Amino acid sequence: MARLEVMKARGLLAATQQVGRAGGNIRLEFERHDPAPALAFRIQESADLVHWTAVAAKTGGGPWTGDVEETLCPGGKKRVRVEAPAPAVRGFIRVVTRSLDGSAP
């Protein structure tokens, strides 16, 4: 069951993610299923695609860490918005999802 939840989460994330700038920040938005008790989300940023720094995280039904705004969407989903200071030259941001029961990477 957790493997299916991860696959659905990744599909929804890929279909709804948007990245842009908001003033001096980089903004990432995506939708997620709610609830998602068997999933962990980590939002990370990097200047070089080698070293990644955590911006925000959510484990199961727990709260988000970091500066995250969630709004309700139709169909049991939530829209997630995260902003982080934009790097001076270039930068990258990603969402890492994983199953909490270890059945899916």
Structure description:
By secondary structure, the protein is mostly beta strands. The chain is built from 1 helix and 7 strands, in the order αβββββββ. It has a 4-stranded antiparallel beta sheet with strand order 1-2-6-5. It has a 3-stranded antiparallel beta sheet with strand order 4-3-7, covered by helices on one side. 18% of the residues are buried.
List keywords for this structure.
105 residues; mainly beta; Immunoglobulin-like; 4-stranded antiparallel beta sheet; 3-stranded antiparallel beta sheet
Which fold does the CATH topology refer to?
Immunoglobulin-like
Instruction: Give the uncertain stretches in residue-range form.
Output: none
Strand order of the largest sheet: 1-2-6-5
- The counted number of beta strands is 7
Indicate how many domains the architecture comprises.
1
The class by helix and strand makeup works out as mainly beta
Number of separate helices: 1
The run of helices and strands is HEEEEEEE
Separation of the first and last Cα atoms = 13 Å
Mean pLDDT: 88
How much helix, percentage-wise, in residues?
10-25%
CATH superfamily: Immunoglobulins
Present the secondary structure layout.
Layout: H1 2-16, E1 18-22, E2 25-33, E3 39-46, E4 53-59, E5 68-73, E6 77-85, E7 92-99
Antiparallel strand pairs: 1-2, 2-6, 3-4, 3-7, 5-6
